[in-house]
Amino acid sequence: MIVIATHDHADFDAFAAMVAARRLHGGGHMVLGRPVSDYVHAFLSLHKEHFTVCKESDLDLDQVTKLVVVDTRDIRRLKNIKELVKRAPERTFDLEVWDHHCASGDDLVGDRNYVEPLGAVTTLLVERLRAEDHQIPEIEATVLALGIHADTGSLTFPYTTPRDAEALSWLLFQGANLKMIGHYLRTRLKPAQRDALLAVMAKVQVQPIVGVEIAFAEVQLDRQVTGLAEVTSEALKAGGHDALFVLYKVRGNRITVIGRATARWMDIGALMRRLGGGGHRGAGAVTFKAISPDEARGRLQAELSREPPQPARVSDVMSTPVETVAPELPLTELERLLSELGHTGMPVVRRGKLVGVVSKRDVQRAHRRGDSHRQVRSCMSQNVATIAADAPLDAALHRMVAKDVGRLPVLTDGKLVGILTRTDVLRVLYAPGKGE
Ligand SMILES: [Mn+2]
Fold it and tell me: 82 or 226, which is more confident?
């Protein structure tokens, strides 16, 4: 008897990997611990005939000849097969592990271990199905595609690999149903979650901390609502904040703080662990007992100021020292200088003070007007958008887009200390794992 299992709270990647393992092995009992994610639950209740699942207690464990564990190998996440895990060290069955997570201190080691850092573990199993020339029925191809979509954010999360995209493409060739994929990927809030979302949105206050804007909300709920993590992410998405912390007060004096961040310079999980909770980089939570909202907020604020967010700053990225020109420089000289330095524009400085910016385009315009014999000051822009050296890079990016300029002179105490160009910003935006 083959048993296929995954971690508790199975998500689509976990479930899809089980379905793929079942096909690879030509059958098997899929063990699914309760609860599973809402989306997997909704999918399963409609597709019961296709995917029979069971509990460990339904099985005669002495009959197990092979155990396939997918999407985790961390023993602590396998409580739903704790008897089999207990037998693993002196097992009489074959053990196969498929995973895409980093090693933890408490890992199962199988007879065969397929572990690669892909966006979705389903990808790894799909590659094997493809290599073995399996034909996948439409419903199964749809589940497998959902697994890859779910764990890669539809191929947009930073750790997505070209192999995830290739596996997804193969599943479409196999007939994965896009209408059904779209249906199960859409976030659908339950009425109680919608009410909570409205309450959060109404209470959001944005507070600048070390120059970045972090949003807070304090919400009183009249009953227990499940899925507040989802509510918090929807509020973050709708508000467009870098990070959002919601203090949910339910009954008595329990307060659950849920944090979510889109900015990579915030590590919500680390912050929540310091407060006694948990989570990962983008999301985390902590529950306080016997505490007032003011106290809870105070602890959160204290922790935030003890280890403040570290966004990239203008001074980390700007070009310095900066080459400048005087307003009296003839345009012909400026042109020569620009092409020699390979710049498309330069700040104009008189007696140490920034008085304008002049660009190649300004010079070309002067040419067309027949003004090329004149000086820099005749065609420079005087109303110059600038940025402070300690401003977050994000603020500089917004200013560049809002003013539609390609360079921002960087000032400290009114003194020109550098220049930030589109090229500087793009270099950071395209760098893996850095910046915003
Ligand atoms: Mn996964």
Answer: 82
